[in-house]
Write a structure and sequence with these properties.
The protein is an alpha+beta fold. It has six helices and eleven strands.
């Protein structure tokens, strides 16, 4: 009986350690990101409108302009707000974008549970609901996600080079290793609305061309 209890105890310890590892890995965020201020959506939307006006003006005058990673964040938030299909405010708590050595890195702290209140494909919702059933609620409120890759224009869509990295908490994935990743594309409607026909990723900026 003593041996049996020792085995049961060992199993429980291993299970507890596994749960702790999964919990700590999923709720992980880099130390520097903890210092990032919570996003002010009103401010970002206003910045986006101002950047959009500047981009249009400079494209008309010189045929090209440059934007930083942070300015890209403001532009994206402004454009999504205009469409009104997705409300980012309850989902995204923090966001940071920068361009380093020609790669665009976007980081965010999101409330995964709030995603269920947004429109999404049925299959995606099915997987999300399945995950939410078993995951501790407090584990979902502050999930760190990041995307690090080189944006490429492919005809009428934007996509990322296959060496792009995706992080969820402390879990890291290569874009190429994810099934169906070749289908991950974004409509280039924002570029078209701003009068952009092409772009080039520089060392720490993106050069937009008319």
């Amino acid at each position: 009986m003593k041996v049996f209890l020792m085995i049961i105890g060992a199993i429980l310890v291993i299970a507890a350690l596994s749960i702790f590892w999964a919990y700590s890995s999923f709720t992980y965020q880099p130390d520097y990101f903890e210092e990032v201020e919570k996003i002010n959506f009103s401010e970002k939307r206003q910045q986006g409108r101002e950047i959009e006006a500047r981009v249009r003006e400079e494209l008309n005058e010189t045929g090209e302009t440059k934007v930083s990673g942070d300015e890209i964040t403001s532009l994206i938030i402004s454009q999504i707000s205009k469409r009104g299909k997705v409300d980012l405010q309850p989902i995204v708590k923090k966001v940071k974008s920068e361009i380093i050595d020609g790669r665009l890195k976007m980081e965010a702290l999101v409330d995964v549970e709030k995603l269920t209140k947004q429109e999404m494909p049925d299959k995606v919702r099915e997987y999300l609901d399945l995950f939410l059933e078993s995951a501790p609620k407090d584990m979902l409120e502050n999930v760190y996600v990041s995307f690090d890759g080189i944006p490429i224009r492919d005809g009428s869509v934007l996509k990322f080079a296959e060496d792009a990295q995706i992080n969820i908490g402390d879990f890291s994935y290569d874009l190429a290793s994810i099934k169906g990743s070749h289908k991950i594309r974004i409509g280039a409607s924002m570029l078209k609305k701003l009068g952009i026909s092409n772009f080039e990723v520089l060392e720490n900026q993106i050069l937009l061309k008319k």
